[in-house]
Amino acid sequence: MKLKAINGFKDILPDQVLRWQQVEQTARDIFERFGMREIRMPILEKTELFFRSIGEATDIVEKEMYSFPDKGITMRPEATASLLRAFIEHGLHVQQPVQRLYTIGPMFRHERPQKGRLRQFHQMDVEVIGATEPQVDAELMAMGQMLLNALGLKVSLEINSLGCPDCRPAFRTRLIEYLKERKDDLCEDCRRRLSVNPLRTLDCKSRGCRALVQEAPSILDSLCSECNEHFAGVEHTLELLGVTYTKNRFMVRGLDYYTRTTFEFITGDLGAQAAVGAGGRYDGLIEQLGGPKLPGIGFAMGMERIVLLMEQQAESSIIKPAADIFVAALGDKAAEYGCVLVQNLRALQLKAAMDYSGRSLKAQMKQAGRINSRFTLIVGDNELTEGKAVLRNMQTQEQETFALDGTINEQAGRLFSTIIPTSIEVDGIKMK
Ligand code: HAM
């Protein structure tokens, strides 16, 4: 039987990795412009952490976690809970009143795999802890939008407010009353949700429920004055920053920890997997996890979905990195010389390659082409005795004799200055 990766777990092959690196580097660059510092947490956490944060009645905790019950541990299904656990454990709030943190890595959820939905997927997660101001919410959304724009993606932003422990219970009661009167028209899942998690009916995908909730009471009409003011502040700042958004009162999110602002970056180009990124505020969560009474807000982008979307939407193509020089050696002595030379070239920070299998010159030149090498140094046993080799520019096909004078180290140095231009000319002006 052929061994294969597990369903929902994917290899990211070298050609695809280029795009992943582009996404990751762009994200790091933008996050750091916004004062974010990286934090890395372990993949395994105590199961209890997710019970107490994401919530026991959520799909993630009820049926999607990869847990080892005998050990009481779980592979993280998201990053926020782990990041807050680390934040509390190491007392990071003592260092700085507002912490801006980000992390990038794999998450695990036992969902039904499909396009853009995996069992191991990667998130770029950002959290700002210790700030309650609506400007921070808007700034985070603007940062997400800046990242998506920088990657050449067109994605829309939807926002909502889920209120706070003061105003949400009243809305919940109103919603339950409304739904109970129409119970027979709800799907089976939503009938069950009615008592455990009634807000989830608002984003149920079944057509019947979708039609039914159109007339349901709106959470945005049930906010207390503080939540209303906060939401107005978020909208005002988004407008100041020129971030386009729409309000979506049906957005409830699949994790229980949210309060007030929630938001999603949405695309119509990935079928059912519309959310490229999502997040929101969680003002009571840190305290609930045994930490100080601090507010927080964050979001996570799904990297698989971003990469898929780039393949579909983005115009820029990936430029394959080129090797600087390939050493084509013919004969045993030349091969030995080449082996030492490439090592010296690499020490000078050049990307140098060589083929040790002693194949024909033609085969070696083919290999140089395959790795997209800019130059090839051709050296045979005879040339070695005569103290000269041939340096070929693979783009122009021009060849020149390269004298093998001095030590190998010196030769590597001369090769370096021959193939790396020390100055470039811009508009007739020489630049170093
Ligand atoms: P989430 O909505 O569960 O939120 O996930 C955030 C993003 O991760 C989604 O919008 C999606 O792009 C990606 N994602 C989720 N599940 C999968 C999957 N099975 N396959 C591929 N991509 C997936 C959270 O995880 C929150 N922790 C976000 C947050 C941070 N809230 C506050 N801070």
Structure characterization notes:
- The protein has 2 domains: 14-167 and 223-312, Bira Bifunctional Protein, Domain 2 (BirA Bifunctional Protein, domain 2, 2-Layer Sandwich); 325-431, Anticodon-binding domain (Rossmann fold).
- It has 432 residues and is α+β, with helices and mostly antiparallel strands.
- The model has no long low-confidence stretch (mean pLDDT 94).
- The strands form 4 sheets. Strands 1-5-6-11-10-9-7-8 form an 8-stranded mixed β-sheet.
- The chain has 16 helices and 18 strands.
- Strand 3 and strand 4 form a beta hairpin.
- The protein is elongated, with a radius of gyration of 29 Å.
- Bound molecules: histidyl-adenosine monophosphate.
- The site of histidyl-adenosine monophosphate (HAM) has 26 residues, from strand 6, strand 10, strand 11 and helix 12.
Small molecules in complex: histidyl-adenosine monophosphate
* Cα-to-Cα separation, first versus last residue: 59 Å
- The CATH architecture term of the largest domain is 2-Layer Sandwich
Assign a percent range to the helix content.
Answer: 25-40%
Just give the CATH class of the largest domain.
Alpha Beta
CATH fold description of the largest domain: BirA Bifunctional Protein, domain 2
Q: Structural class per helix/strand content?
A: alpha+beta
CATH superfamily of the largest domain: Bira Bifunctional Protein, Domain 2
The largest beta-sheet arranges its strands as: 1-5-6-11-10-9-7-8
User: What would the principal axes of the Cα set say about the shape?
Assistant: elongated
Radius of gyration: 29 Å
Let me know the average pLDDT.
Answer: 94
The total tally of domains equals 2
Unreliable spans are: none
Largest sheet: 8 strands, mixed
- Strand runs, count: 18
Report the total helices: 16
Approximately how much beta-strand content do the residues carry? Answer: 15-25%
